[in-house]
Design goal:
about 280 residues, mainly beta, 14-stranded mixed β-sheet, about 5% helix, elongated
């Protein structure tokens, strides 16, 4: 297995036709790369693994599989599985046509793309992640998140802004420190704790905002319920409407915010579903 001395975090690019990518970041002073045929019984996979480039220079690692003509002339997929162990804090760009991408440990800025597969990460700085069919799950993003998917999206914590576009599947954000934008064609949207501005829209699905403390929130669905929790001590201005459902607010009506109160402006629309506004638990 190729091994390189890397006493500091590096910039790693892994680009394969098909196959899984696993990167492990830890407290280490070297980088180790392992390239294996995705299917050891496939001569195409074995050949592709043997021809995959592994290069390192000036703090940059490149792992890139070839694109032989035979890939396009056979119904059998050609692919390699890549495992990289590198120093924590490294920046990563991981691309695969078909396969899962796993980032274990703590990273700098990361870009991940797979056409068909899951994206799973522990901790990153800014993250751009895309899958056309699969799940995206990240424990902590210490920065901004740009997520494009078609499947389950789960972001436990985002310290910066979060932008999510999800074609088909539920989207969940545990806590966002910055502005949040979530758009979905088909799927529920859940944001447990919101940043200063939230825009959440889905054509088919429910929208739930667990706690809003200040700022502005725009929630919209064509078919589904909307639920909003307002933090205790926050005064809310409400503009909510359901075309064929009930609207219920558990908040006490008042003339305006008391001195020192945080304020939140909430707009919610659903064509077919109920709307509930309550105090956050």
């Amino acid at each position: 297995m190729p091994t390189f001395d890397t006493p500091a975090p590096i910039h790693a690019t892994v680009d394969v036709i098909t196959g899984d990518i696993r990167i492990v970041a830890g407290e280490r002073h070297d980088t180790v790369v392992e390239v294996r045929p995705h299917d050891p019984s496939s001569e195409f996979d074995v050949r592709t693994a043997a021809q995959t480039r592994v290069e390192f220079a000036d703090g940059k690692l490149l792992v890139k599989s070839p694109k032989p003509l035979s890939v396009y002339l056979t119904t059998r997929s050609t692919g390699v599985d890549v495992t990289v162990a590198l120093p924590a804090g490294s920046q990563v760009k991981a691309l695969t046509g078909q396969g899962d991408v796993r980032l274990e440990g703590t990273y700098g800025d990361c870009t991940v793309r797979t056409h068909h597969g899951d994206v799973l990460a522990h901790r990153t700085a800014d993250l751009r992640a895309t899958t056309l069919h699969g799940r995206i799950s990240v424990d902590r993003i210490a920065g901004d998140a740009q997520i494009t998917g078609s499947g389950d999206v789960e972001l436990t914590e985002v310290t910066g802004a979060a932008r999510v576009k999800n074609l088909d599947g539920p989207s969940w954000i545990g806590h966002a420190g910055g502005d949040v934008s979530v758009n979905s064609a088909h799927g529920d949207i859940t944001i447990d704790r919101a940043g200063p501005r939230v825009v959440a829209r889905t054509a088919h699905g429910s929208v739930r905002l667990g706690e809003v403390a200040r700022g502005a929130a725009v929630l919209q669905t064509a078919s589904g319920a909307i639920e909003i929790g307002v933090r205790k001590g926050t005064s809310a201005w409400l503009d909510v409407k359901s075309s064929s459902g009930t609207v219920h607010s558990e908040l006490t009506a008042g003339d305006g915010p008391a001195g020192g109160d945080e304020t939140a402006e909430i707009r919610a629309r659903t064509l077919d579903g109920d709307i509930l506004i309550r105090r956050a638990a």
